[in-house]
Amino acid sequence: MNIEDLLRETLSDMAHEEQPPPPARFFRANRDRSRRRGLALAAAAAVTVMAAGSTLVVQGLSSQTTVPKDFTGQGSGETPGESEQGWTTLTVKEGQRLTQILKQLSTVTGRSLAEFERAAEDGGELGLPAYAKGALEGFAFPATYEVSPASSPGELLAAMVTRFNRAAEDSDLVDGARRAGRTPLEILTIASIVQAEAADRRDMPRIARVIHNRLNHTPEMMLQLDSTIMYGLNKFGTRASKEDLRSRSRYNTYARLGLPPGPICNPGADAIEAALKPAAGPWLYFVRTDPEKGVTKFAGSESEFLKLVEEHDRNRRSG
What we know:
Helices cover 45% and strands 7% of the residues. By secondary structure, the chain is mainly α. It has two domains: 3-170, no CATH class; 182-281, no CATH class.
């Protein structure tokens, strides 16, 4: 049963009750139904995700504050910052790793990093789709969130997962992956690589095409992407050293065929769309020929690729 079904079941049951259910009803660990209702309500709270542009409101279960009219259609009409002290605006950018997001959440909310790390480990409590296999990386969707001071780490992360689930539905991720001959997790992994590698979102569909072409090549080609190696080594950047290339990590796409085991960052909607609908083309290589200007060029053969490498080297020397 997914989060949407749980939420519908909970709200349907509550509609027939004369009095609001006591909090314990949703938190009793020894009753599975109560636990699932708690999950649904936690998602609903984290998903008090109101239509205010691209901003989501995260209202904690224990909060007694009134959510503003601009976000719910009820209340005072003030913004969260105006109506209650302690509300925080949090913007999660595309391409951040989960470790970066958890540190950002800790800094913004004043809660310990350990609390967020513990919450992130319990994927079943966050409403992750089954194909996530319990791992949050890739599913903490980049967006702007208005955070209530009463929101718990689990509620904040659940809000990000809920926003991901909405984006996945909007992009038709599951069916689109099937049509592409990939699993949803593989498409999301491709999207994360596209997000990490692209200097310009306009290049995303062509970068996605390179990845698909290499995966579908006969015989299959190694992806040979520095960004995946750096993720596996917990390093940042897109240029791996010769020592890095010798890594035995499962994310070393110079040494292992196919995709890495999962996403390497948290991609946005543009990258997911590119992974699902790559541009048409014969490209097998891409090179950021001018790193300063963010120019990326594409090649369909090794000889063309070597010319792009030469162009990259010239631009680096002249810069």
